[in-house]
Design goal:
This protein is an alpha+beta fold and 534 residues long. Helix content is 47%, strand content 17%. The strands form 6 sheets. Strands 7, 8, 9, 10, 11, 12 and 13 form a 7-stranded mixed sheet that branches.
Length: 534
């Protein structure tokens, strides 16, 4: 007899997981990621402490922002990576709902696992999910309200959205104050949605309530020595150019001189070169010069003699935003003043925040530019407040563009779930089972929100379903009292865009993971070291 050895296709260190094992691995990874962040969901959600290792060892981040947690957690499971990327996309796209989208995708996969145990094929489940997604999206659209034509009602909608977004963050205690800051800042954009015009500056000290909105642009820099501290009708040249004495840049160069006088001649030549550069800058007829790079003592002195305010080392994010709001351009060469677009503003003055002195640019051409200054007791609190306000600003900007709003507090999820269940009755075959599973996954969101508040979720969610079945379509969870309440009366509203994105992203990510029937890990590449040629 001839013994047949199994044919090995993959390299020795490559791994392969097939069919059931691959699917189980995907489900376990994705569900674990959902379980990791679900305790942070809702207004009574808990925070996580993230302690970094490696280069920033010991750095502590306290947060309940889903995207921040998942970004910081290193995951090895491929399905878990899909959910981490999905939460990042949700954060980039609409700024909020990062936890909801991860939890919903994980719950969908939890339900899919049960269906696969019942020998229902993944493609059948996917077909049912797609029908369920379409029904849910339509139900959400029908339930949405658009008050954009009435400015007072629309502002109140924005305030409610900001309050709802902030109620699950560290700023929940001061949500009225911060909701007002965020809405005022976004309304200044006049619908442009250009968030770059809103700057967030973090200054430790004081309390969260000391945070304020400054209607101008603040730059965390000081002018040079003996330069004007206040400039009216500023003409600003914004540059990214080296302002140190131009050293000989050729690597390994040596200059031999036969006397000390020659050295002073070299130094003088360098000085003259820098003086020419400063004169070229002054020919632009400016009274403020802002540079991305350092400005050394000699050019700083020349600017002081000319009565020009010179600001060095304006960080790149700051200088990009400064160019945007003052209407100028960032330049690197100064030979053609007639081609350079200068920035302008009415007044540049020094202001004091805490113990720090900053420069305020008032009356900038881009009138919507403003700065939110965040104060707080510790760096961790300020960083989390910064993330929270950024989420609120993103959601409000998305709502200004797409002005529909829906009710929060689990109301929208129950609405979608009941619409799917109602339609599933009319669908023949196994797809109906998949649709009902989709509805069950949607109902897990209000269940988790109630659980995180320490309430009886089974009781509350069943009451909520009963209320919706009676036609009370605005009922949701009142997390202050631990009962169901009218979301319309309580003003708990969310952006339609965020809810729609959560629904679609979670359904797509869960579908991608459910389609997997094989996981192949490639063998690591070996570095070939040719020791014969050194």
């Amino acid at each position: 007899m001839v013994s047949l050895n199994p044919v090995r296709v993959l390299k020795h260190e490559a791994e392969e997981e097939r069919a059931e094992l691959a699917r189980l691995s995907s489900f376990v990874g994705a569900i674990a990621i959902g379980d990791l962040v679900k305790s942070t969901l809702g207004p009574k959600g808990m925070d996580k402490i993230l302690v970094s290792s490696g280069r920033n060892a010991g750095e502590v981040v306290v947060t309940n922002d889903g995207a921040t947690i998942l970004k910081s957690v290193g995951v090895d499971n491929p399905a878990a990576k899909v959910l981490v990327n999905m939460s990042k996309v949700q954060d980039d796209e609409v700024g909020d709902g990062t936890t909801s989208v991860t939890v919903l995708a994980a719950e969908l996969l939890r339900e899919a696992e049960k269906l696969i145990d019942q020998k229902i094929h993944p493609q059948t489940i996917i077909a049912g999910w797609r029908k369920a997604t379409d029904i849910a999206r339509k139900a959400l659209l029908d339930a949405s309200v658009d008050n954009s034509l009435n400015s007072e009602k629309f502002r109140e909608d924005l305030m409610n959205i900001a309050r709802t977004t902030l109620s699950s963050k560290i700023l929940a205690q001061h949500k009225e104050h911060f909701a007002s800051l965020a809405v005022n800042a976004v309304l200044r954009l006049k619908g442009s949605g250009n968030l770059a015009a809103i700057q967030l500056i973090k200054k430790s000290g004081g309390t969260l309530e000391d945070s304020f909105l400054d209607e101008g642009f603040l730059l965390d820099k000081k002018p040079g020595v003996h330069q004007p501290k206040t400039v009216e009708n500023a003409k600003i040249l914004i540059a990214n150019t080296p302002m140190d004495t131009d050293k000989i840049k050729v690597f390994g160069s040596h200059i031999k001189v036969d006397s000390m006088a020659k050295i002073s001649e070299l130094e003088l030549a360098e000085k003259e070169k820098m003086k020419d550069k400063v004169n070229k800058i002054l020919k632009h007829n400016v009274n403020v010069f802002i540079n991305r790079q350092l400005i050394y003592n000699y050019p700083e002195q020349l600017f002081a003699d000319a009565g020009v305010m010179a600001i060095e080392h304006a960080d790149f994010d700051g200088i990009e935003r400064l160019a945007l709001v003052t209407g100028g351009e960032i330049v690197s060469t100064f030979d053609h003043p007639e081609l350079v677009k200068l920035g302008t503003c009415d007044l540049i003055e020094q202001v004091m925040i805490g113990e720090d002195i900053l420069l305020r640019f008032s009356g900038v051409p881009k009138g919507e530019a403003c700065t939110i200054v965040i104060r707080g007791a510790t760096q961790q609190i300020i960083d989390e407040a910064d993330r929270s306000i950024h989420d609120a600003l993103c959601v409000l900007t998305a709502t200004v563009k797409e002005s529909r709003v829906v009710f929060g507090g689990g109301c929208s999820e129950v609405l979608m779930a009941l619409a799917i269940t109602k339609e599933a009755v009319n669908v023949p075959g196994k797809e109906a089972v998949a649709m009902e599973a989709f509805a069950k996954a949607l109902l897990q969101l209000p269940t988790i929100i109630a659980d995180n508040g320490g309430y009886d979720s089974a009781q509350l969610v069943s009451e909520l379903r009963a209320a919706h079945n009676k036609g009370e379509k605005s009922m949701g969870l009142d997390m202050l009292r631990g009962e169901i309440g009218d979301m319309k009366a309580l003003g708990i509203t969310e952006s339609f865009v965020v809810k729609r994105q959560v629904l679609l992203s979670a359904a797509e990510a869960a579908e991608v993971i459910l389609r997997v029937d094989n996981i192949i890990k490639a063998a690591p590449r070996r570095r070939v070291e040719d020791r014969g040629h050194c």
